[in-house]
Design a protein that fits this description.
The complex is a heterodimer of chains A (about 325) and B (about 600). With about 325 residues, chain A is an alpha/beta fold. Helices cover about 30% and strands about 20% of the residues of chain A. Chain A has an eight-stranded mixed beta sheet, sandwiched between helices. Chain B is α/β, with parallel strands linked by helices and about 600 residues long. In chain B, the strands form five sheets. Chain B has a seven-stranded mixed beta sheet, with helices on both faces. Chain B has a five-stranded mixed beta sheet with strand order 15-17-16-19-20, covered by helices on one side. Chain B has a three-stranded parallel beta sheet with strand order 3-4-5. Classes of the chains: A alpha/beta (about 325), B alpha/beta (about 600).
Chain lengths: ~325, ~600
């Protein structure tokens, strides 16, 4: 995706004629709108865009985009999207998934897609609950939470998606809340620009089965103090007046207030998203209070398809078989007259 | 031992003999040596007439140790030759092999022509002073044995010498050791005048052309390479390693520069779903596996049925259920291929009947998938996949055209599920084509637009269309042929990899004047159009399969107007010709 020209699209060009059927008030609406708004700015012709999904509420997404789309089966979308991308590397391939689809039934495909670093943009709608099957706990549900299938509270430890992505040697991880369309658009654009597997975790509210799960972060009165939005090259500041920041104490991140205990802006960590070493990225992904939003990691490296292309060129140069016919007549043959 | 077998095969093929081989080896990579479970065998059948099987019963058995004798002696007819490496027949050897007494003394060998040769010690002596380590010297004893057999069957040594030179190009000493052992064995056999019962084998009478020896899995891979080139497409293989199918993945991985992408996925499901993605994006998409893998792919194969995408799934069948007998052959995945998915989920099912035929069926499966826009399951089996046979070399230009069923630029108002009225195939378009943006998926879809539809009548119509589309493939495949008698008392029916055994058995029956015909299915769903007409010409029908009765039950459902007898063998081994002729004689005698 080297193209940067802006094509003459508006967000309406990316809206299909299908009626959107999520529950009223679902966070998915805001995500859909943000994706449609960002597409004209990504600079890719819409016939070159493919949205692939698995199963779940979020996986209805491709039907609402007027691009090529494939609503596949539960958990398998990363593999299917990989096939699309390898068949035609010039396509911009997006995967829409949820916490159950990506991290439970599709966990294996998810980590292996990340490990290979195929150029896919994966948007993970994390509402920490199963919506389509009506309210069972998911791999990201808080420990102890009561749900339909955990009436006494869950006893499974949840996954933190960012920790999993970076642990699986992920090159790109970002997090954003569904209540912040501006940041969603900025982050989606970065994900599209990054070549390699990009994972964006969206803190998404399920109004029916897990309402206000992120309210402690996203409610108006909490936002400034409970979410830190980081940007590459800038100090990690937060608070209504940027009066707080993150510092490294020993092997831990710590939230501090400027001016207290002699802390100045000089002490605040500056974000380096492009750093190969993922130690600080991992700490940022794991931080619970404040929770980190924005692009946490964006390390550039060769993609799977670049390496494949190199191999093909190498074999083309060295193989003694220039055509399939050469191959068929190779080795020991004999003629019968 | 596998190497020794392939060398004898290659040499014989070059002399113009017809050949058929059957490697039989344990599932364990390094099974305990000297035990019956650890015996690795290679069966080769050479002929001056056409041969169709690796043979029931050997004329010569080479037993490198007591376990090999124990494992195979029951297969060798009395009066035939057994070569024994007496260095490996000491008390501890025959005890380990499970003999109660010394087989050289006990009389179990008294009806055989036994050649007792100190193969290991002679090899050691021949290689003395070369400076090779002990392990390499011991390994060379297989070459000594091969040399002996070459002399007995008047085979030249040059093919193997060339092979060794190539293989050990950078290990001069090992090359020298092997050639020395080979020649020593050859000369030893000459000195002791080792003779077998059938020592001079002339070239077989085969159709003119250029030939090479080919293995089934290799032929499958090449059939796909040829199909992709013929269809003007890139080939995408999504696969996860599994015995006995992995060689197809290995072979295609070598040829990336032919536009062949071999993608080793994280599991069987990712193998097929990546292929489905590639099919959606316009490649000739295939996935290869064996029975357990087909089970894992079931849901995704249903997705390909629902979305109506071209896809070929190869199942190299092995003994089941579960892990079963990974290195042994069986035909027990037919029902799984036909029905092993949720919902009404029809796919085309075809089967390869011999190693070289794998090429034709891989090509044909690709053609049907692309032209009818539907998934195809190709069944081969461990016996066909690992066996080898002379293949009359084909060139891409000799093959039928493949015309993928795609929307043309001037199609007005294209709709994703609009169909060709004859074949019922939908018209494919691929991402990248402007103005055709559309969405497909696993939910039931409207019969024209492809949009999600829960309309009851639309669902019934779509279920019927998907089945009818597969049934209409019968208009595009060859008729069922009959070998032997065209009508009469008994029709012997088989499918896939049993072709060689059944053909040989029918030839023998005919030579004995028994009125038998043989019909062999390569196309199973749909059945060839003339199937009922062929069945109607015979008084009795017996369906022979290496399973507990799968084709026979399918036929009972499809063509219930006929009575079917059945003959089943479920031992992880191919049919022996003698078993079949005996069964046929029994049926004809009314037993």
């Amino acid at each position: 995706m080297e193209k940067t020209e802006t094509l003459e699209y508006t967000y309406k060009d990316f809206a299909s004629d299908q009626e959107v059927r999520w529950c009223p008030g679902c966070g998915d609406y805001a995500i859909l709108k943000s994706v449609q708004k960002v597409m004209p700015e990504v600079g890719i012709r819409k016939e070159d865009v493919v949205f692939v999904s698995g199963i779940g509420c979020s996986s209805r997404f491709p039907y609402y985009m007027d691009t090529y789309g494939f609503h596949s089966i539960h958990g398998r979308a990363p593999a299917l999207a990989t096939g699309v991308k390898l068949a035609n590397p010039s396509l911009s391939v997006w995967q829409i998934t949820g916490d159950g689809d990506a991290l439970a039934i599709g966990g294996n495909h998810f980590i292996h897609a990340i490990r290979r670093n195929v150029d896919l943009n994966i948007l993970l709608f994390n509402n920490r609950i199963y919506g389509l099957t009506k309210g069972q706990f998911s791999p990201t549900t808080d420990l102890g939470q009561k749900t339909k299938s955990s009436p006494q509270g869950t006893i499974d430890n949840p996954f933190n998606p960012g920790e999993l992505v970076i642990g699986a040697s992920g090159h790109f991880f970002a997090r954003v809340a569904d209540t912040n369309p501006k940041l969603m658009q900025a982050v989606f654009k970065e994900a599209a620009k990054h070549s390699g597997t990009s994972i964006v975790e969206i803190m998404q509210n399920c109004v029916i089965f897990n309402d206000k799960v992120y309210a402690n972060y996203t409610a108006k009165e909490n936002r400034a103090d409970h979410i830190i939005t980081i940007e590459h090259g800038k100090p990690m500041l937060f608070g209504a007046n940027n009066e707080k920041g993150l510092v490294l104490r020993g092997f831990k991140l710590e939230a501090v207030t400027l001016g207290e205990n002699g802390i100045t802006e000089e002490d605040i960590l500056v974000h380096d998203a492009y750093e190969e070493d993922n130690t600080v990225h991992m700490m940022l992904a794991k931080l619970k209070m404040p929770i980190v939003n924005g692009v946490i990691r964006a390390y550039k490296d060769d993609t799977f398809e670049m390496r494949l292309k190199k191999q093909v060129e190498e074999i083309e140069r060295t193989s003694k078989f220039k055509s399939v016919n050469d191959l068929f007549t190779s080795g020991e043959t004999w003629e019968i007259k | 031992m596998q190497l020794t077998g392939t060398q004898f095969t290659g040499t014989s093929a070059l002399l113009g003999n017809d050949i058929a081989t059957f490697p039989d080896y344990p599932a364990e990579i390094r099974a305990p040596q000297g035990t019956v479970a650890g015996v690795s065998g290679f069966q080769v059948h050479i002929g001056q007439t056409h041969i169709y099987t690796p043979g029931d019963q050997p004329d010569v058995l080479v037993a490198m140790n007591a376990a090999a004798l124990k494992a195979n002696i029951s297969e060798v007819p009395r009066g035939k030759t057994i070569i024994i490496d007496i260095d490996n027949f000491k008390r501890k050897d025959w005890e380990k092999a499970g003999f109660a007494e010394d087989p050289l003394e006990s009389g179990v060998l008294k009806d055989y022509h036994v050649i007792e040769a100190p193969i290991t010690s002679l090899t050691r002596k021949a290689l003395e002073g070369l400076g090779l380590d002990n392990k390499s010297i011991t390994r060379s004893k297989n070459m000594f044995a091969l040399g002996m057999v070459y002399w007995m069957f008047s085979r030249p040594l040059d093919y193997t010498e060339r092979f060794l030179k190539d293989k050990f190009a950078k290990k001069e000493l090992i090359y020298e050791g092997n050639v020395k052992a080979l020649k020593a064995g050859y000369n030893y056999a000459e000195t002791i005048e080792a003779l077998s019962s059938a020592s001079t084998i002339l070239p077989a009478d085969m159709a003119p052309g250029l030939y090479k020896n080919i293995m089934g899995n290799e032929a499958t891979a090449w059939g796909f390479l040829a199909a992709a080139e013929k269809a003007g497409k890139e080939l995408f293989l999504g696969s996860y390693p599994i015995t006995p199918a992995s060689e197809i993945l290995h072979e295609i991985s070598k040829h990336k520069h032919f536009g062949a992408k071999a993608f080793q996925a994280e599991d069987e499901i990712a193998g097929i779903t990546s292929a489905i993605g590639a099919a959606f994006a316009g490649d000739l998409a295939i996935t290869t596996t064996s029975g357990p893998g087909l089970a894992l792919k079931g849901e995704a194969l249903g997705l390909a049925v629902m979305t109506e995408l071209p896809l070929v799934v190869v199942d190299v069948q092995r003994g089941g259920p579960s892990t079963g007998l990974p290195t042994k052959t069986e035909q027990s995945d037919l029902m799984q291929a036909l029905y092993g998915r949720n919902g009404e989920s029809p796919v085309i099912v075809v089967a390869a009947k011999s190693p070289a035929h794998c090429f034709d069926m891989a090509f044909m499966a690709s053609k049907l998938a692309l032209e009818h826009v539907t998934p195809v399951v190709l069944l081969t089996d461990g016996y066909v996949a690992n066996g080898s046979q002379p293949w009359r070399i084909k060139q891409v230009e000799d093959l039928d055209d493949i015309v993928p069923h795609e929307a043309s630029k001037n199609m007005m108002n294209w709709q994703p599920y609009e169909r060709d009225t004859a074949s019922l195939a939908r018209y494919m378009v691929y991402p990248g084509m402007a103005g055709y943006e559309h969405r497909i998926g696993g939910l039931e879809k409207d019969h024209i637009t492809g949009n999600i539809s829960y309309d009851p009548r639309n669902h019934e119509e779509m279920v019927r269309i998907r089945e009818e589309k597969v049934q209409r493939v019968a208009n595009y495949i060859p008729d069922l042929e009959v070998q032997g008698e065209e009508s009469g008392e008994l029709l012997v029916v088989g499918w896939g990899g049993t072709y060689g055994s059944l053909t040989t058995a029918i030839n023998q029956c005919q030579a004995q004047g028994r009125p038998v015909g043989h019909a062999h299915f390569s196309f199973i769903k749909p059945l060839p159009k003339n199937t009922a007409e062929v069945f109607g010409r015979f008084k009795k029908i017996v369906v022979c399969e290496l399973n507990n009765g799968q084709l026979v039950n399918y036929l009972r459902g499809e063509l219930p107007q006929f009575d079917y007898l059945q003959y089943n063998k479920i031992q992880g081994l191919p049919f022996r010709v003698a078993e079949l002729t005996e069964k046929i004689a029994d049926i004809l005698a009314g037993k």
